[in-house]
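Course assignment 3, question 2. Fill in each field.
Student: A.L.
Task: Predict the tertiary structure for the chain below.
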Amino acid sequence: MEERLRHGSHGWTRIKDEMKRLVPICLIVGGATLLVVGLLLPRYHNQADYDRRYMVLAGPDRAQDFRELRRESLTMSLTFQDYGLCSISWGLVLVAWIRRDRVNRFLARSRRSVALFGGVVAILTVAGQVGSLRLDLERGEFPHWADSIGIPLAGVLPILLALVAWSVVHALLFKRRRSVAYRLTLGNGNWWLAILMVVSGSILLYSSLVGDFWLIIPAAGWIAFYGIIWVSRPKTTPGIHPLG
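Answer field:
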């Protein structure tokens, strides 16, 4: 009986190891397939008709008419591209999760390494915002009478600096420990970090549902950033504040 239990346990371990390897591969391959299909499909059902109707849009309701025109004229091309890139992004996130022990060994060294990781996530977040704007511009999501994207781009540097400062301040919460075998617990009063992780997780889920691939990796990065800080704090740590 014991031998059968051991054999069953080893079999389940092999299945889990195989799943860890196959799931990210399937997500990346499936996402790449969707992306290629989306790129091969025509963007519009009838581009000549779209261009003709677009050029005669006028009046106070032209913005609403423009959105309705795009909804009627676009094929599934852009949708396939977006969800394909979402799937690829999730595959990369799972690869990073599977290899998290290597990351933990580096990040558990000091607050400086945690702050550096947070700074990288901040850069990815802002880069995603810029990339989203430029891609939407290339796809024709903005009508010619709309405001220039220079207005939102002007806020990129302040947002980046604010996110970097946010990362540095929260990195001060990190408590260095010799072991990296942490457990997630609310026993040390990490309510603030818990809220931040829930918010980041909600953004991650929403981005996945609507096909906003630009935010998937940054949102997962913020979850990892707050999680690394959370699990580093012993149960005896009182409260959560930047000088704690």
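Instructor remarks: The chain has ten helices and no strands. Confidence is low (pLDDT under 50) at residues 178-182, 237-244.
Grade: pending
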